[in-house]
């Protein structure tokens, strides 16, 4: 092999500006692409989080009351509405609730192990619903039992109600009782009296997807109570397989037949889980798409830049190449020369780029509470950019290798 | 000379179409990415009330204490007890409390179903404080606040829906089963970000439909339709218990028009918290805040992280495009070393060569700017992919953005050309002429 690095380095010293420009471009591209890919990975991981809901068949009706009713009036109406919904031919089950997974934010309570503990142990999303809620959402009960209908309390507008039973997500059970003994144990959720765990479901996503929610990912609880809040209630409905569209059409009609003194927003009052997921993860998906586009264009521009500059160099050095060829260098030698030259510049660039990539990430961690960049991303970024450089330099290098030795004698 | 060099520049662009296309695309993509993300950033980080943002303040009082507050910071809103105490003290030129309420408008006219209306419970000072523009009538007086009257100010949009847009002052509307007298109709008014309610919103929401007296909303026991945050164990069983709890749900605003007034109000707040400590209600020393509008926007992080990150990434992207352009311009200019040598030999000064190549770079920048403009238009139309509709619709391609796009493209390219043009101007005529 005649890959001699020293002459290449000497030659590069005569092209400081071009060398530096390519190296800087590779460094910046590596730094940005690494961080962009990392953001894409994180956002896509969020997108694929499981809600625990039978998403293909469940939809949600946001029902607001049109007049000031007493808790008793509201409770009677909710019961009547439930009967009407559950009787619809396309509906498997229905339940009232204070919120639903992936709603985009909602009620959460601090959890303590004793009533006078000041610093909370953790934080849990809070759902309230009746004994039909588990089946309606399609949650998987992994231990214990569902609520009995006589355990379901009535919660009026301004009541801090604490039911003595609770069903928790496996994530919350594990957080509170890591040894797996959660069933039958009690805790306090901002209450003077305890709630005892009678069942465990897995998984059950929180309402939100904010950094706060991520900090307490999957930690949720369900209390047995009919939310008879004067402001309104969510009706969760689970359609029979394949009958989602029909059930979504029939449900509001059935409700208006019960009473017209309610408001179901014609625009977004009824949403299936495809819409709910879309709404809550909109910006995550958008961010992933944007970063993807930027990375792709960036790599293309960097590659094109390398092609452009190397072509220029080849053009400049035709005579030298001709001389080398005349002195006995093979085409492979010339090809190898340009590939090695690019590799050397590339290595210089990625070394600077690695430092820059971690620098940018550290700054983002402090500004946006993002996660730390993992080494694997940087390593794959380095490989990607070195390969990109070699690929980009190939065409000009091949052209250089075709320079005829005759060129050495020309134009002198 | 400028026109001639410009012409030369245009001609040179045509000479290496691939290289030129590459540069124009790099500039175009770079500037478009930056401008699109900047359009969003500009929309979300603007001053929503430029004339008064330094005179409007929101006070916060730590009613949770060091064990339970937000890592040393007071909660982002007030509980009922503190809110009412600040309101009753009347220590500012103007003051209001506010919280979000939702009501229904019962069927009437051509509507056969009730519709929901979103608004705020506020004090009469709200309207002059925030410069709310009126189409008909006005806000209500402090006496009306005292009298807990059933007045309401409705938006132009709701007035259109309910009264067909005519002057409805003095008419009666029924919200959620209660009658209200319309005292004013606002012109379309929806400051972005909605600085006055950053506890319940992230700053971007559909416009409000109505404003009603805070005192009347209390009489009707209207629960906030927005946020509510509490600490410790919750024991309330009704409205009165709830109002005495440590739950925060009310935002307060005061208008203070001099530095002295601000200092005085700060002392008053400290004094109030200190009195609460003496009275035994707080077991901690005063921990209060007084933020003006821009500080409050910052504290509540109104600019979405997506906006900041995408702007930064786009600027980095633009920087790479420029580095790329420097390299390509270098190649393009030095390829013509022979030509430069001839011109120099014929008497052109270095300065002239320098000017010629900078202007040539300017034409590249202009072409890149035009491409960037088209891409920015496409980008602005597509920001809905990344941002929720309330924010996406704020990003607009107006004249200032068009101008800025072209300007940034040209200036950046000319800056990028400084080094390559300098190298071109340094070409030795003798060297070039020799080998020909």
From TrEMBL, chain B:
The UniProt record lists the keyword Cell membrane: yes
Domain of life: Bacteria
Membrane topology, from the record: Multi-pass membrane protein
InterPro entries found in the cross-reference section: ABC3_permease_C, MacB_PCD, Macrolide_Exporter_MacB
Species classification: Bacteria, Pseudomonadati, Pseudomonadota, Gammaproteobacteria, Lysobacterales
PANTHER family: ABC-TYPE MACROLIDE FAMILY EXPORT SYSTEM PERMEASE COMPONENT 2 (PTHR30572:SF18), MEMBRANE COMPONENT OF TRANSPORTER-RELATED (PTHR30572)
Protein name: Antimicrobial peptide ABC transporter permease
GO molecular function, one term: transmembrane transporter activity
Boundaries of every MacB-like periplasmic core domain copy: 20-262
Domain ABC3 transporter permease C-terminal: 312-429
């Amino acid at each position: 092999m005649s890959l001699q690095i020293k002459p290449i380095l000497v030659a590069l010293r005569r092209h400081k500006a071009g060398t530096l420009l390519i190296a800087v471009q590779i460094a910046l591209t590596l730094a940005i692409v690494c961080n962009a890919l990392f953001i894409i990975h994180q956002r896509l991981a969020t997108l694929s989080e499981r809600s625990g809901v039978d998403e293909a068949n469940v939809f949600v009706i946001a029902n607001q009351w049109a007049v000031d009713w007493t808790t008793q009036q509201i409770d009677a109406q909710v019961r009547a509405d439930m009967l009407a919904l559950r009787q619809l031919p396309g509906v498997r089950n229905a339940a009232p609730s204070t919120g639903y997974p992936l709603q985009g934010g909602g009620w959460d309570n601090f959890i303590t192990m004793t009533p006078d503990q000041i610093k909370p142990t953790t934080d849990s999303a809070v759902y309230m619903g009746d004994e039909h809620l588990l089946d309606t959402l399609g949650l998987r009960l992994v231990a214990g039992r569902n609520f009995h209908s006589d355990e379901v309390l009535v919660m009026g507008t301004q009541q801090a109600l604490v039911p003595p039973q609770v069903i928790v997500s496996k994530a919350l059970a594990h957080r509170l009782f890591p040894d797996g003994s959660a069933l039958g144990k009690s805790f306090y959720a901002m209450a003077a009296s305890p709630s005892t765990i009678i069942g465990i479901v897995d998984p059950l996503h929180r309402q939100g997807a904010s950094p706060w929610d991520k900090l307490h990912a999957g930690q949720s609880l369900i209390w047995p109570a009919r939310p008879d809040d004067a402001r309104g209630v969510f009706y969760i409905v689970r359609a029979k397989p394949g009958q989602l569209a029909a059930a979504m059409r029939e449900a509001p009609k059935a409700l208006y037949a019960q009473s017209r003194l309610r408001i179901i927003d014609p625009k977004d009052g009824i949403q299936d889980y495809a819409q709910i997921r879309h709404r809550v993860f909109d910006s995550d998906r958008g961010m992933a798409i944007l970063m993807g586009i930027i990375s792709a264009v960036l790599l293309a521009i960097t590659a094109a830049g390398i092609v452009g500059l190397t072509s220029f160099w080849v053009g400049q050095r035709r005579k030298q190449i001709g001389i080398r060829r005349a002195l006995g260098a093979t085409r492979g030698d010339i090809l190898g020369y340009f590939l090695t030259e690019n590799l050397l510049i590339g290595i210089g660039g990625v070394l600077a780029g690695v430092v820059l990539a971690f620098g940018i990430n550290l700054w983002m961690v402090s500004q946006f509470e993002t996660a730390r960049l993992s080494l694997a991303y940087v390593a794959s970024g380095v490989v990607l950019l070195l390969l990109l450089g070699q690929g980009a330099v190939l065409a000009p290098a091949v052209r250089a290798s075709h320079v005829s030795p005759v060129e050495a004698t020309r134009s002198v | 000379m400028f026109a001639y060099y410009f012409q030369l520049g245009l001609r040179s662009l045509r000479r290496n179409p691939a290289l030129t296309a590459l540069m124009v695309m790099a500039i175009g993509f770079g500037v478009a990415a930056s401008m699109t993300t900047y359009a969003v950033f500009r929309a979300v980080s603007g001053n929503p009330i430029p004339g008064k943002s330094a005179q409007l303040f929101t006070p916060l009082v730590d009613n949770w204490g060091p064990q339970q507050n937000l890592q040393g910071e007071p909660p982002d809103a007030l509980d009922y007890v503190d809110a009412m105490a600040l309101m009753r003290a009347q220590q500012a030129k103007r003051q209001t409390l506010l919280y979000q309420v939702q009501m229904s408008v019962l069927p009437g006219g051509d509507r056969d179903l009730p519709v929901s209306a979103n608004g705020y419970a506020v004090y009469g000072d709200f309207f002059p404080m925030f410069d709310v523009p009126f189409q008909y009538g006005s806000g209500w007086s402090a006496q009306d606040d005292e009298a807990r009257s059933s007045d309401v100010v409705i938006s132009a949009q709701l007035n259109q829906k309910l009264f067909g847009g005519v002057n409805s002052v003095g008419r009666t509307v029924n919200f959620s089963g209660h009658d209200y007298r319309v005292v004013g109709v606002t012109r379309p008014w929806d400051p972005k970000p909605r600085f006055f309610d950053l506890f319940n919103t992230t700053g971007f929401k559909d416009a409000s439909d109505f404003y009603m007296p805070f005192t009347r909303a209390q009489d009707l026991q209207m629960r906030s339709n927005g946020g509510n945050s509490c600490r410790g164990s919750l024991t309330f069983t009704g409205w009165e218990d709830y109002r005495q709890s440590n739950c925060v749900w009310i935002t307060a605003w005061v208008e203070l028009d001099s530095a002295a007034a601000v200092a005085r109000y700060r002392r008053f707040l400290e004094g109030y918290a200190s009195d609460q400590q003496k009275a035994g209600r707080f077991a901690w020393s005063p921990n209060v805040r007084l933020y003006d509008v821009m500080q409050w926007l910052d504290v509540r992080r109104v600019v979405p992280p997506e906006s900041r990150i995408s702007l930064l990434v786009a600027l980095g992207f633009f920087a790479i495009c420029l580095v790329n352009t420097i390299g390509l311009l270098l190649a393009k200019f030095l390829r013509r070393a022979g030509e430069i040598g001839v011109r120099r030999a014929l008497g052109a000064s270095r300065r002239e060569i320098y000017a010629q190549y900078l202007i040539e770079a300017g034409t590249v920048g202009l072409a890149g700017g035009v491409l960037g403009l088209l891409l920015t238009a496409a980008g602005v139309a597509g920001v809905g992919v990344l941002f929720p509709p309330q924010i996406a619709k704020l990003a607009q391609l107006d004249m200032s953005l068009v101008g800025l796009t072209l300007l940034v493209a040209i200036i950046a390219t000319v800056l990028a050309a400084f080094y390559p043009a300098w190298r071109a101007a340094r070409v030795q005529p003798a060297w070039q002429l020799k080998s020909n």
